[in-house]
Design a protein that fits this description.
By secondary structure, the protein is an alpha/beta fold. The protein contains six helices and five strands. It has a five-stranded parallel beta sheet, sandwiched between helices. The termini are far apart. The structure holds S-adenosylmethionine (SAM).
Length: 158
């Protein structure tokens, strides 16, 4: 099935089922960054049902470039794998079903680093994610975190 059709279906599913996916405005900004950077490797923390990862795949460097994305919720993980398969991206996007706070610790920065790291999971764990992202990002790489201010609610607690 054509990728744009699949993305439209995923977005509709997300709206119907209250799955929190990237808003259009944030997605457009990130895609612009990826278009300029053309990363060879992306690490995503918080897959949900694969909407952002499938979108990001459009601006990878080449056919051998990869996305590693981590999702803790088993149902979301299953749906993400299904959607990624439908999009024909199983060789490009690897989904891990794990709590990222634990899984990230297992990635050795001497063996694997990423051009772009996208943090989009539990806000309360952002500092842990950031510490790991700083360790795992390549020199000259980019770390992006969605919704840091979460409509002002995070700022109002500081
Ligand atoms: C905002 S959604 C991700 C949306 C997705 N990036 C997109 O735009 O299509 C956040 C996801 O992070 C997952 N999550 C929350 N805490 C997590 C953790 N500690 N490890 C892995 N995934 C986590 C949630 O289950 C949820 O599916």
């Amino acid at each position: 099935m054509e990728q744009e059709v699949i993305l439209k279906e995923i977005k509709e599913y997300a709206t119907k089922n209250y799955v929190p996916i990237l808003q259009d405005i944030s997605l457009d900004l990130i895609l612009l960054v990826l278009k300029l950077k053309r990363p060879d490797s992306i690490l995503e923390i918080g897959t949900a049902i694969g909407y952002s990862a499938i979108n990001f795949s459009k601006y990878l460097k080449d056919k051998n470039s990869t996305i590693l994305t981590i999702e803790k919720n088993a149902d979301m993980y299953k749906k993400a794998v299904e959607n990624i398969e439908k999009a024909g991206l199983s060789n490009t996007i690897e989904v891990i079903n794990a709590d990222a706070t634990e899984y990230l610790e297992k990635i050795d920065e001497n063996e694997k680093k990423f051009d772009v790291i996208f943090i989009d999971a539990a806000k309360g764990q952002y500092l842990v994610f950031l510490e790991n992202a700083l360790r795992l990002v390549k020199k000259g790489g980019i770390i992006i975190a969605d919704n840091v201010y979460f409509k002002g609610r995070v700022l109002s607690r500081i």
